[in-house]
User: Fold these one by one.
Assistant:
Number 1:
Amino acid sequence: MTAPRCPGDRLPVLVAVLARTALWTALLLVLWPVVASVLGAEVTTVMSDSMAPAIRSGDVVATVPTSAEHITPGRVLLVDDPDRPDRLRLHRLHRVEADGLRLRGDANPDADTSLVAPAAVHGIGVLRFPFSGLPVVWSRSGDWLTIVTVALAVVALVRVAGLDRAVRSGIPCARCGTPRSMTVPLGGHDRRGGARVLLPTATVLIGLALAGSTLAGAVFSGVTSGTGSFGTAAFDCFRQHPDDDAVLAWDFDEPRGDVVDRSGHGNTGTMSDGAGRVDASCADGPRLVLAGESSRLVSTTSGTPPTTFSVEVWFRTDTARGHVLGFGSDRTSVSSIKSRLVYLDGKGLVHVGVQGAGNGFRFQVASKEAVHDDTWHHVVGTFTPGRLELWLDGIAQSSRSDLRNPETTPGYWRVGRQSLDPWAGATYPYDFAGEVDHVRVYERVLSADEIRAHAAAGR
């Protein structure tokens, strides 16, 4: 037989249960990242909304180390921030490029400008704990009003959680005198037991919320140490040869805008008349596509061409014609003076040419085999006074030694459309129809070993 219930018990019991549920939920949100950390994950408090809406400021994310084959586009990575060495960055991998990893925040319209080295990867995100790191966000931003407000709210919830203490302790209803001993046995309970349990629980909750979340977010404020074990060799399409001394380096790996000169010499390139980029993964390779009759990429800054030099380019075409790479006196599709050329003749043979001083004789050498087979080819032309050489796919093709003084009229480097009149073997139209990648200019002659190594490393 159940004793009559007090009509006023339902509301305080309901409110108290809801309050305890809220407290335990908050406590578990704080404890789960601690558990993940104990199990070996690296837990990190998110300090901005750059990954919204999937991950927001105040969330805690657990990451785990992984092998290079799992570092694929779309994965959320925790890395050493390339722009701020004292912080970490949590962004999604946009693509793998030849010189590093390109990340992007979900909320950002553009990919990150700085590449991330493979060795800077701590791991991939596997778990998200919403709101767990909010105390860290508030304390770092100096939002003490919110912290005090939340602390008072926790104290209030603790007090509300004890509203059903009389019911749980079996105290008779003060208003109607209904006994509660049959619904909740006394069992020797101390009537202050509820408060004695709830108050320490609240203290632990607040302490863990601040201490645990601070621990989780500490990596954003202190000097970090990379725990990743990734290296360049783990990514098959990372180039294995350095380009440190190139004076022009175009890789076409920007998602939009002008083509950046990776050599650091400021030879920015602008595309026109149908030239465009393929924003591809590292495995497929970002590259320049030339499709229009006047498609070209031209540097924005004028300069004097080097007397001793090497020009290097990868290209693919199924058409036997066109100017691939060179130096011209003008930025238009027709330059009055053009030299340091790589071009195809009507038979599909590739030529390297240098013009003599004073708009003089045009010296050129040609390959021994055609290259318009729709496969990628590596071409290097080298020149020092008295020696002009052409290399194709790491193999020396031809040379000559009768040019001493090349033309040095200032101008612009370009890829694509350029008038070839009256260069030997050139056929009209002069546009190159195909794809181009890894353009390099050096103010020295590459050695035979370097050329072979570059060809073997791939584009």
Note: DSSP finds six helices and 21 strands in the chain.
Number 2:
Amino acid sequence: MTFQDFNFEPELTEGLLSMGFKQPTPIQEQAIPIILNNHDIIACAQTGTGKTAAYLLPIISKIIQSKSQTVDTLIIAPTRELAIQIDEAIQGFSYFAPVSALAIYGGNDGASFEQERKALTHGANIIIATPGRLISHLNMGYVKFSQIKHLVLDEADRMLDMGFNEDISKIISFLPKQRQSLLFSATMPNKIRELAKKILNNPEQINIALSKPAEGVTQAAYVVYDTQKNELLKGILKENHKESVLIFSGTKEKVKEMERELRKAGVNAAGIHSDLEQEKRNEVLREFKSRKLNVLVATDILSRGIDIDSIGLVINYDVPRDAEDYIHRVGRTARAETTGIALTFINPDDQYKFKKIEDLIGSEINKLPIPAHLGAGPVYDPQKHRMVFNRRSQGAKKRR
């Protein structure tokens, strides 16, 4: 099957050909005909399956056909980064088509807020928004969504995890009841199904199973104490100094601390987290994408929805809280049939979380020996799935 089989409007097909799009992914093959036929959808599909194009392409084609001059589509996304990425995808797909879009998200200045206000009142065809920023506009009273034909909730599970349930309900109260609603989620817990019952009308269901890490990813782990992590990390970066490296940490405080430590060690590194101004975040991402920046340290804000190619190495400085997040983190490397390496640091407190990851992917991840100069680390018992503290080594380290 090819994209030409969907009979999109000619302007959209021309854009796809210029971008090198030939064959649809499974989520695109299943979702596009349903959306073109105006049915609601609840779809379980993780990052990297092509879900953004799965809903954008049929919507853009319908906007071209209808010659809409008003706000036709509202896409709600959990983070600024995902909103920006969706906006960039629209610009690419609609390069030859008269379709306008605007991303609305927090952290911008007054001029940006005024630009957003004009788009909401005079009409961009597609609005991509984070919940909090959109509600700020809705509370002003000038937003008119009476002509909305399509509502898309992207990464709905992440939005609910971030506490946006009430915000989503409030936003939906401003929309016409007669609309097409599309809900995409990487996981499908009960709270997502409850949300779907509230906003979807007799939806078609699509389930693209959570895929394992790409075959091109070499996965391995180090069993370490927290006191050994920084020196181990510096050694790995020194050996891989030519690679683009993405490091995931559990908190923004750790990201800031790690950025300082790596810069002191002469590593060309920068951190990205929620405390950064949006302009600075965009600048850091641009430098990383253009390879002016070798090492990017981030929280899980980048594990989903960020399309950065040519990342050779992903390091989980902390084991992710949820096993599914490991899949998303590791999925940042070995994209588009390339190869990459994913390393995880496991401390004694994270052993059970890591065991869940191995259960999810269906195989045990290779445990590498830590360099001798770091001293002995915990001993991982694969039979009991627990670590044994090497107390003699720890005591010796403290005495030194």
Note: The first helix runs from residue 10 to 18.
